[in-house]
């Protein structure tokens, strides 16, 4: 390869990144700024210039699909032998190879999902949990292991982190310890233990460390803002005392802190490597100037460490349509109108697969599924079971592989449709959600056959199966010709021509249980991620009531202030909130911790709350949580209940002044809480309140 030719077509900032070939390099890359292009050209340039061989490079990212895309680009640039892998795939490969030397005996079986194992130990511990509870518990164990928290330290660690457990902390710690014991007894290994064991193997066996470090001398880490302490431990083990590492990311797209991710490694990179080269990519090639203005405005009032590294995007595309801001009376009206707008976009020529409806919680999906079905618009729900893990897809892939030899030169589109018909691919989608999801999966395979035939005239069945197998290997699911419905978390890394951000009200965006300043800022970043998924059309909407005829008490999300027409700017209000000083009502000290500010006293100052009231509040909360099938902390956190028991408010105004009691919770639970504070039993209609929209939320 000619090193200069590799650099052709890069913009000045991408060129600067690609030419920084040695030592630590930090690329701060805003949404849509071509970070993958910059990184792959940098790798190819290093190979072409003789700085490093292909086999000595390890490029690490977070999804199999992203790793596959990176390998594809490197092949086209003349560097096909570069290893581009996820942390997990790189670790399992090394651990498997060195296991006989480092440990000996049979290699443990890898756990694909914790939920089944967690269910087994939770039952043994006397806990009866539904699917949501098991998912929350498995997620808590994953956070603990990713942040290197042991079962014995769990209670102390979550208090320090300001984290709320999904159930009593001693129960979480008990199940966590039993889960670890079960994995050891049954020779099982989860993803977190795999990373930890790989790092330990390198640290404890000098000969293994020497072999690994002689193999890999040049590192690239994508999405570095999503790295957790355990992944950083493994990266440090790979590096040793070397510094040929290039990290890429955007602190303002950190949206997985609930899983242990921290932007601190990215924002602190220059401090860790004072001689590092830092490059900022700000030219946005994805979105129109109109969308970019909304994205920049979304972060205008951001606070915290990530905001200090905010990148002001500069749009490179021509002008497009103005974003739409729409207020509706109720949620059904919002869903119906969005479906009609989508149908109009499709009629105007926008492909259905290039349209997405994004929401904060998976519970919001149902209304849009129904509205789109009523409008005759095909759709697919993202974030459920991985495409190639679905039973109908496994069966279809097996059948298609078996048919590749006898198909000859028959047209692949009709051949594929004929093969899939007995499996459930009918001309029209069936009724019922499960049947429809199965049909959509099979239709996506048929669509892939059409795409292959269109891109490669004369393609055979063997060509199609080769394409399918390549996608299976990289988890690159084919796109179904339908509108995408997805949570904001599962939309990360994707983009569409048209994006509808829906349900933008206080209590959903930010979510009701985001109480601390750090949690609010993460919600702001999640909103920013949603905005930056749109290339051209952006619609933002909210509903004032949940149901037709309901009380219109909801307020538009604070993140829309200063963006939507005639809306106020939150700058002054946020500045006042940031500047407010809260002092301990016992000793007068300034309070800085969120939990202490909520209680209005230092954690070690004597409490003066009504213990009987606190127990009654907790019993009431437990009943509400069981009735609504939501975690207890979604109703109120322990700290909020303790603050209520200490203040014993007599009216709604007093209750609303307690941190953690926002407008949504006040409306839903206020009467019940005030009755308890008055020593009375809540009226029957106020015991459970309205079911919480986000109670069955699953983030991806």
UniProtKB/TrEMBL annotation:
What chemistry does it catalyse, as a reaction equation? Couples ATP hydrolysis with the unwinding of duplex DNA by translocating in the 3'-5' direction; ATP + H2O = ADP + phosphate + H(+)
What Pfam family does this protein match (any one)?
UvrD-helicase
Residues annotated as binding ATP: 29-36
Protein origin, superkingdom: Bacteria
Q: Where is this region: Disordered?
A: 547-574
Tell me which EC number(s) this protein carries. 5.6.2.4
Hydrolase as UniProt keyword: yes
* Record's keyword terms, sorted: ATP-binding, Helicase, Hydrolase, Isomerase, Nucleotide-binding
Positions of the UvrD-like helicase ATP-binding domain = 8-288
Gene3D superfamilies from the UniProt entry: 1.10.10.160, HRDC domain, P-loop containing nucleotide triphosphate hydrolases, PCRA, domain 4
| Entry GO MF terms | helicase activity
Residues in UvrD-like helicase C-terminal domain copies: 289-536
Please list the residue ranges annotated as the HRDC domain: 607-687
Q: Check the record and name the InterPro entries matching this protein.
A: DExx_box_DNA_helicase_dom_sf (IPR013986), DNA_helicase_UvrD-like_C (IPR014017), DNA_helicase_UvrD/REP (IPR000212), HRDC-like_sf (IPR010997), HRDC_dom (IPR002121), HRDC_dom_sf (IPR044876), P-loop_NTPase (IPR027417), UvrD-like_ATP-bd (IPR014016)
Q: Provide the family line.
A: Belongs to the helicase family. UvrD subfamily.
Protein's name in the database: DNA 3'-5' helicase
């Amino acid at each position: 390869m000619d090193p200069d030719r590799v650099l052709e077509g890069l913009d000045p900032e991408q060129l600067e990144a690609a030419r920084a070939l040695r030592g630590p390099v930090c690329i701060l890359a805003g949404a849509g700024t071509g970070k993958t292009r910059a990184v792959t050209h940098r790798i190819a340039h290093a190979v072409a210039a003789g700085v490093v061989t292909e086999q000595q490079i390890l490029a690490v990212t977070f999804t199999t699909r992203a790793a596959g895309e990176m390998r594809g680009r490197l092949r086209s640039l003349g560097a096909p032998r570069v290893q581009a892998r996820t942390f997990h795939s790189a670790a399992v490969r090394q651990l498997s190879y060195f296991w006989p030397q480092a440990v000996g005996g049979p290699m443990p079986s890898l756990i694909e999902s914790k939920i089944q194992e967690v269910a087994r130990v939770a039952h043994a511990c006397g806990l009866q949990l539904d699917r949501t509870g098991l998912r929350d518990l498995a997620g808590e164990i994953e956070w603990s292991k990713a942040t290197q928290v042991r079962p014995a330290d769990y209670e102390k660690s979550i208090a320090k982190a300001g984290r709320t457990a999904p159930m009593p902390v001693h129960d979480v710690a008990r199940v966590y310890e039993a889960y670890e014991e079960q994995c050891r007894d049954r020779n099982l290994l989860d993803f977190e233990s795999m990373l930890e064991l790989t790092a330990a193997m390198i640290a404890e066996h000098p000969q293994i460390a020497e072999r690994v470090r002689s193999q890999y001398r040049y590192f690239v880490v994508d999405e570095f803002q999503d790295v957790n302490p355990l992944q950083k431990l493994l990266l440090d083990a790979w590096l040793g005392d070397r510094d040929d590492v290039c990290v890429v990311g955007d602190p303002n797209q950190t949206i997985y802190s609930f899983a242990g991710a921290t932007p601190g490694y990215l924002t602190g990179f220059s401090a860790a490597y004072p001689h590092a080269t830092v490059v900022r990519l700000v030219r946005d090639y994805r979105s129109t100037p109109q969308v970019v203005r909304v994205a920049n405005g979304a972060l205008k009032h951001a606070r915290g460490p990530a905001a200090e590294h905010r990148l002001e995007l500069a749009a490179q595309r021509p002008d497009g349509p103005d974003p739409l801001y729409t207020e509706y009376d109720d949620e059904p009206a919002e869903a119906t109108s969005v479906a009609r707008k989508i149908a109009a976009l499709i009629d105007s020529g926008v492909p259905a697969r290039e349209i997405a409806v994004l929401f904060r919680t998976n519970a919001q999906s149902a209304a849009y599924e129904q509205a789109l079905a009523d409008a005759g618009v095909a759709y697919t729900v993202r974030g459920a079971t991985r495409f190639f893990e679905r039973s109908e897809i496994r069966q279809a892939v097996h059948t298609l592989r078996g048919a590749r030899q006898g198909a000859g030169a028959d047209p692949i589109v009709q051949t594929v449709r004929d093969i899939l018909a007995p499996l459930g691919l009918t001309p029209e989608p069936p009724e019922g959600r499960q049947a429809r999801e199965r049909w959509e999966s099979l239709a996506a395979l048929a669509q892939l056959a059409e795409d292959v035939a269109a891109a490669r005239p004369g393609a055979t069945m063997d060509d199609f199966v080769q394409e399918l197998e390549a996608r299976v290997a990289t988890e690159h699911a084919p796109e179904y010709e339908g509108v995408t419905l997805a949570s904001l978390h599962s939309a990360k890394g994707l983009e569409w021509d048209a994006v509808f951000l829906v349900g933008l009200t206080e209590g959903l965006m930010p979510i009701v249980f985001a109480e601390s300043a750090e949690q609010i800022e993460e919600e702001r970043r999640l909103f920013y991620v949603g905005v930056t998924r749109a290339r051209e059309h952006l619609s933002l909407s909210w509903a004032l009531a949940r149901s037709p005829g309901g009380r219109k008490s909801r307020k538009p999300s604070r993140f829309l202030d200063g963006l939507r027409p005639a809306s106020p700017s939150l700058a002054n209000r946020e500045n006042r909130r940031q500047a407010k000083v809260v002092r301990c009502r016992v000793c007068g000290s300034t309070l800085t911790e969120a939990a202490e500010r909520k209680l209005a006293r230092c954690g070690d100052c004597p409490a003066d709350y009504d213990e009987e009231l606190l127990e009654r509040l907790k019993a009431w909360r437990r009943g509400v949580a069981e009735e609504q099938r939501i975690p207890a902390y979604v109703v109120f956190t322990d700290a909020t209940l303790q603050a209520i028991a200490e203040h014993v408010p007599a009216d709604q105004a007093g209750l609303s002044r307690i941190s953690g009691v926002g407008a949504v919770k006040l409306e839903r639970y206020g009467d019940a809480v005030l009755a308890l504070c008055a020593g009375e039993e809540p009226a029957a209609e106020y015991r459970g309140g309205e079911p919480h929209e986000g109670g069955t939320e699953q983030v991806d």
